Amino acid sequence: MKIGVLSLQGGFIEHINHLKSIGCDTLEVKTLCDLENVNGIILPGGESTVIGKILKETNLLTPLREKILKGMPVWGTCAGMILLAKEIENDKNNYLSVMNIKVKRNAYGSQIDSFETKKIIKEVSPNPIPLIFIRAPYISSYDNTVNILCEVNENVVAARENNILATSFHPELTENLEFHKYFLSMCDKNV
Known about the structure:
Blueprint: E1 2-6, H1 12-21, E2 25-29, H2 32-36, E3 40-43, H3 48-57, H4 61-69, E4 74-77, H5 79-84, E5 85-88, E6 99-104, E7 115-120, E8 128-133, E9 138-142, E10 147-152, E11 155-161, E12 164-167, H6 178-190
Parallel strand pairs: 1-2, 1-3, 3-4, 4-12, 5-6
Antiparallel strand pairs: 6-9, 7-8, 10-11, 11-12
């Protein structure tokens, strides 16, 4: 099994390092050929508008969307969550539009408003997981097909819909590997 990390912009190296540390075969996804050679993909944090633009310019947007709709596991962190959402508050644009969520971009404020907390997320681990929020979005509304995994201050910050996982926070910026292991278990079930 090989897990791809979209490597067009943003914090992809941190995800790759976490995956490698748990023995996972990984691939930086930059081309359509790369995309064809992975069993699951992580969409990292970064600038969602920039990543969306590059996805279009490299002709990866539609093939990636189709693979997700056909069941390929995908996990979007922060900007990745925005890319997955069907709706973005106060924005007519959307990107992959595969998850039945509406997100609020920069919901917690600017870079200076970044913060860290810990939560137990039963589906992922029985132990508290560190959650790092950097200019983070949150899910402002969702369909009943979406399973809410975590809320912070009554805001939805982690959710799953079938083969799609989305988190507002950055597990790759901590030493905790539980979310990466959870995503690998999603991919295992799909192989």
